[in-house]
Write a structure and sequence with these properties.
The chain has 14 helices and 19 strands. The chain is of the alpha+beta class and about 425 residues long.
Length: about 425
């Protein structure tokens, strides 16, 4: 399967699907051909004929649960300058496949497609239930591919279990090995802080009320303070599996103990436990010689799954106080999460233990967005996890390459993921 997965990934990377404009159709048609030839039923559907979603189904011999393998084929842009290989070359070099999307996330698309096709060609069919392969368009910009499927064609993609992007890296905690499983994603509650004053000529600042200066204390507070703890089941399960339950002394004590055992992991876990505020843009005025009467800060705010607007606002005011600004939410997309205990987690645990004896899964939540959020919202009983296992490329390296220069994937990790999806399908569906 490794050789085929490498070949499929190389071909996918040669389709330029930078979004916008996306232009995913040639890549989706290529995948559709592979899956149809293997024996799966394939639909290409969506809001735009040139940007279809792909849904492929391998029907089982009897009714049962449906397992979905989800990915997206659009990518962010890339400037070829400074890359070791052209971003759309799909080059195989130094044991890696290179190109934009090699990690995010055409590698997972290739692994899922090859796993399903290999099973189908072998004559395997689920004893009970169906296997779905879902490759969507437009995840990187607006998420309209998944939204369209879940709203306009829900019966085509309805599933009980789902594997998508989000985690899978191997981490060391003391002398123990774990593979991260993302149970959910933090929500996005972006907002703008507005301050107001009185304009005047810049040569007479004493008679003005400079709105720009009023941003300074707000920025200072966001740099110096953090909102209170909001611990959800995912991070609670993480600490429990590490033997650091939160009831032993609260998040502070558990984080300190984790930092002592795994200094590189603790900073990645800490944002799971509370609202985060990241000011990213500031603007005021227009002319050098005019004191601005209005100023603004744009803040990227990420919140634990399940929090409401009122709860988020209360946490923001813990940091900023109640006065001296006007807050306007500009984008609200609540986070979602799945339960930490399920047959799918059992199957992942079993595969991890068989592949890397002694290793275990480590649940958590992702600070970023994925289409799993859309699927959970559409199908409330769905168990959706983010899992693309990789142990040959360090977690820190993978994180740095996502959307970065010289994006690439180790072919051994590509093979590992392909084996995982085939094995979990067998375990879940019989």
């Amino acid at each position: 399967m490794q050789a085929e997965a490498v070949q499929v990934l190389q071909r996918l990377l040669r389709f330029n699907t930078v979004n916008p404009p996306g232009a995913e159709r040639p890549a989706q048609e290529y995948l559709a051909g592979l899956l149809r030839e293997a024996g799966l039923e394939v639909d290409l559907v969506g809001p735009d004929p040139e940007r279809p979603n792909l849904v492929a189904r391998l029907r089982g011999r009897a009714p049962g649960p449906v397992l979905g393998l989800l990915s997206h084929v659009d990518t962010v842009g890339a400037d070829p300058a400074g890359w070791r290989h052209d971003p759309w070359s799909g080059a195989l070099d130094d044991g890696h496949v290179w190109g934009r999307g090699a990690i995010d996330m055409k590698s997972q698309t290739a692994a899922e497609v090859v796993a399903a096709a290999t099973l189908a060609r072998s004559g395997w069919r689920p004893a009970a239930g169906d296997l779905l392969v879902i490759s969507v368009m437009d995840e990187e910009v607006d998420g309209t591919g998944a939204l369209w499927l879940c709203e306009r064609a829900p019966e085509l993609v309805r599933c009980d279990y789902l594997l998508n992007e989000g985690d899978g890296g191997r981490v060391l905690v003391g002398d123990e090995r774990f593979y991260g499983v993302s149970l959910g994603e933090k929500g996005v509650f972006r907002f703008t802080l507005h301050t107001e004053g009185t304009a005047s000529h810049a040569s007479l600042p004493g008679i003005a009320d400079n709105a720009l200066l009023k941003l300074a204390p707000l920025l200072e507070r966001m740099g110096a303070r953090k909102p209170g703890w909001d611990v959800t089941p995912g991070p609670a399960a993480l600490f429990s599996r590490l033997g650091l339950p939160l009831d032993g002394g609260g998040p502070e004590a558990s984080l300190a103990a984790l930092a002592a055992r795994a200094p590189g992991l603790a900073p990645l876990v800490e944002p799971m436990l509370h609202v985060t505020l990241a000011p990213t843009r500031a603007a005021a005025g227009g002319d050098y010689n005019v004191i601005p009467a209005a100023a603004r800060i744009d803040v990227d705010c990420r919140v634990p799954p399940g929090m409401s607007e009122a709860q988020v606002l209360a946490r923001v005011r813990e940091v900023l106080g109640d006065d001296g600004y006007r807050l306007e939410f500009t984008e609200i997309f609540p986070g979602t999460s799945s339960v930490p205990e399920s047959p799918l987690m059992d199957a992942l645990d079993a595969w991890v233990g068989a592949t890397d004896p002694g290793a275990r899964c480590l649940p958590g939540i992702s600070p970023g967005f994925s289409d799993s959020t859309t699927f959970r919202a559409a199908f409330p009983d769905l168990v959706a996890y983010g899992f693309f296992p990789h142990r040959h490329m360090p977690v820190e390296q993978v994180a740095a390459l996502v959307h970065g220069r010289d994006e690439r994937i180790d072919v051994r990790d590509l093979a590992l993921a392909t084996d995982c999806y085939a094995s979990v399908a067998r375990a879940m569906l019989g």
